[in-house]
Amino acid sequence: MAAMLEGLDRRQRLQLMKFVCSFAWADLEVRAEERAFVARMVERLGLEPEELARVHGWLEHPPSPDAVDPMAIPPAHRKLFLDAIEGVIAADGEISVEERESLQILRDLFE
User: What is the C-alpha to C-alpha distance for residues 29 and 93, in angstroms, rounded to an integer?
Assistant: First the structure.
């Protein structure tokens, strides 16, 4: 995944983190393990301070549904997004029904 992350431009990196944070909220609670996963991703992405502030904001309040458009994800990056989303929802050791359903909807949209 590290090599794929390097292929993202700044806008795409922020878009990825917006999706990851929105899925962290799928069960209406962002747990410590999910926050730690996000922190590791942010570090690997090398986000700028203002971008980091936006990510922290999404961990406090989920991005609006209108701001998370799966069809805006370029086909070349969809697997990377799915892998990152799977990582955040599995980070706490539990995958809730809401998380599972949201992930399946995203997979279906990408097919």
Answer: 14
